[in-house]
């Protein structure tokens, strides 16, 4: 319960005159004692139950407190300095209007709230009931009376509260504020909505004001006209008539004060015009007829005006500073904004006119065509080409679309019509056709396009003949045809792998190149081999095209028979050196019916032998380096398929590798990669241009049209257009998309070749170690030589991993390290998380150094790690942290790392139990992803020997795995076999 009463008092300020102030008062027996004046800080007083309107009053009144006025209107250091230096003109023109506006807001709240108002003299601290000022809840209504006679015009002002007239005099009225006017009338606060007190004051002392006829014309054309416009007027001796005018609305395209285009709405009532935000409700005009004054009064029809405004809103315009604009127009440059408005009028002018709104232009440099414009297109086929015919209709004018090609390609929006009006070509045409036209060739009034641009045509052109639609269907739905798998495939394909095979076969049928870009581990190699097995030595004729020098293209739907009658040659598969072994093994494992030849190293033959090999073998495997070095030899051979694995190897179109593969001759092309885009869209261009030359235009065009807009400006429209263009030629499935087809755990052994110098070092050290071990066994026996044997095994393992593990600072390459890092880069690009386990901390440190060079986030856990939980949490919770380096001893048990879905075991050894424990860090309860495990084995090394023993479950492997001391059971012969 409140002990005090909140009130407002009207009191005299020593400089400002009459002002409102908030107070707490307390009821005494016969009076009210003033407790204190209130400030905004008092609103925090929790002992008083503040009402919202009371808080608002306190804050409003504080706006003209001495301290606030000093800050708002001066740089004075104190209140006294402010008022002593305040100039009277500034005070009257700036400070007083501000204060009076605030006081009117206070009065408006008092008119509607139960807060009481009291008058208070500064020297008294008590208030009495008779000090209360009643606040009238309605605005007073002024009524002006004019009476014209032959000698003068008398002017009176009457004031009414409802229907009761107030008798004005100095004794009854006291002015509180001037504009707007607040007066205290007989102990009652009266507010006027828009009357200035200066109009009221003359009638405090006299009943009327007389104006002589000698100045009446000026008086009637000024004061009287404005008064008739703004107030209720009673006239005698002259006429006030209501104008009878027709009304209509006009939307005018013009430039605003910032010289930006906008649509200005005007309501025209005869000759009178109103803007929508005009405060004038009435327009008054004056005519003098036969010595008498006649005022014509035009009253606005706000209901009709609101209907017009609603119609404007319904067509998408919004209000902005008194004019109408389109959403987002402020983001456009001036010229583009003007074009945007013109095109908007092209589409919406009929709807505006149906709602009775006229469209005009005002003060523009040119006359723009704002009528309808339509583009009509149809497509026909001619052999292997699509022919596009198009006509643009600008009202009565028909223009062949081919005439607009240079305008669209050069971003010229303005096209002059025969009547001199300027048509603005819609931005939509540029967006839709600018990317299409560079791929077309002009022929008279038609434009021709090649078959691999069918996606652009399908998106851009609706009107097509039946043959075109049929061809579209053949191209679009080619992959939907279910193709019977080759009977002699030695694998069971999962459903998504069958879909990939069908997709590649569909591209093959239509002589189109494709990019298989599935996630790592989904069997891209198997899908590709299935296709090659399906097409093995088909008895058919072929035509080989050079993509660099031959521009002619096969008929799109021919049966691919031509004049050259050659047996189908081999397919050439180009891979990184580290994958030659893997492809060879996969062919032997899954498609042994394919005859395979490895064209690498010393197996490379002379040209006549290569041509024979190409006719005899089904598949030739080679490396990018070999193609680069032997391009003159290989480019003269006709291949059936040219397949690039890890095709990001040709991402640089200026590289020798790219230029070499572009010279190769093949009837069909395919690329395989998990990361078609590693750094830039230019990576994609190189691979797509290899597959289907010209599909994305030349590189300069692609950079201008796609790379810059997408990479620098995140242009969504160009991104979608590029996706449309490449979608039929790129198949990418992520692991989580095909999860239902995968087993919970997939394991693969990746055999890695040694680098040349690494292999020499390994063989040299192996020879020394073998001799040392044999000598030790001869002298000490097997059991006492165990340390020497283990030391030798460990050194060979380290050499197989990386030469610098044996000798610090040794700058020699490692084949396994290169394979691991290449696969790791793919996984990071594909946004997967991977655990990397090693028995050697130094091996992890080598990877760590390389990872840091790439600025990839990672975590690391070894026996030296003290904050295990923090390291684990960072990996689990940070989506950008994709790599966890873990030593097998420190992280083989006790970890739950279910965020990871790939596991690398980079130096496998005897005991599979330890490896399984490591795998179980990711493959455990709580894991909702399928886990891929890769074991990296160095080819022709101790690691490969150990793996073969484990695979055969030999007694030697069993002794090392299950025996506490294998050297009690192992023989000299078994040890020697390891070091052969």
Looking at the overall shape, the CATH architecture of the largest domain is 3-Layer(aba) Sandwich
**How many distinct beta strands?**
43
Structural class per helix/strand content?
alpha/beta
Number of helices: 32
Give the strand order, joined by hyphens, for the main sheet: 5-3-2-1-4-6-12-11-10
Count of the separate structural domains: 6
CATH superfamily of the largest domain: Tandem AAA-ATPase domain
What about the largest sheet?
A: 9 strands, mixed
User: What is the CATH level 1 assignment of the largest domain?
Assistant: Alpha Beta
β-strand percent reads 15-25%
Structure description:
The chain is of the alpha/beta class and 980 residues long. The protein folds into 6 domains: 5-135, no CATH class; 142-176 and 189-237, no CATH class; 247-282 and 299-361, no CATH class; 373-462, no CATH class; 477-738, Rossmann fold, CATH 3.40.50; 747-978, P-loop containing nucleotide triphosphate hydrolases (Rossmann fold). It is built from 32 helices and 43 strands. A 9-stranded mixed sheet has the order 5-3-2-1-4-6-12-11-10, with helices on one face. A hairpin with a 2-residue loop joins strand 17 and strand 18.
Strands, helices and their partners?
Layout: E1 5-13, E2 17-27, E3 32-37, H1 52-62, H2 66-73, H3 79-85, H4 88-112, E4 116-120, E5 126-127, E6 132-135, E7 141-148, E8 152-161, E9 164-166, E10 173-177, E11 182-185, E12 188-191, H5 197-200, E13 209-212, H6 216-230, E14 232-236, E15 239-242, E16 247-255, E17 261-269, E18 272-274, E19 282-289, E20 292-299, H7 302-314, E21 317-320, E22 323-326, H8 334-354, E23 357-361, E24 373-382, E25 385-394, E26 397-400, H9 405-409, E27 414-416, E28 422-424, H10 427-433, E29 441-443, E30 446-449, H11 454-460, H12 466-476, H13 495-509, E31 514-516, H14 524-534, E32 571-575, H15 580-590, E33 596-598, H16 607-616, E34 619-623, H17 624-629, H18 631-634, E35 638-645, H19 656-663, E36 665-672, H20 681-691, H21 699-712, H22 716-726, E37 730-731, E38 745-752, H23 756-780, H24 786-801, H25 815-829, E39 834-838, H26 841-853, E40 857-861, H27 868-877, E41 881-887, H28 888-891, E42 902-905, H29 912-919, E43 931-938, H30 942-952, H31 955-962, H32 972-978
Parallel strand pairs: 1-4, 6-12, 7-14, 15-20, 16-23, 31-36, 31-37, 32-34, 32-35, 33-34, 35-36, 38-43, 39-41, 39-42, 40-41, 42-43
Antiparallel strand pairs: 1-2, 2-3, 3-5, 4-6, 7-8, 8-9, 8-13, 10-11, 11-12, 16-17, 17-18, 19-20, 21-22, 24-25, 25-26, 25-30, 27-28, 29-30
Helix pairs in contact: 1-4, 11-22, 13-14, 14-15, 20-21, 21-22, 23-24
Keywords: ATP-binding, Helicase, Hydrolase, Nucleotide-binding
Domain Helicase C-terminal: 819-979
Protein name: DEAD/DEAH box helicase
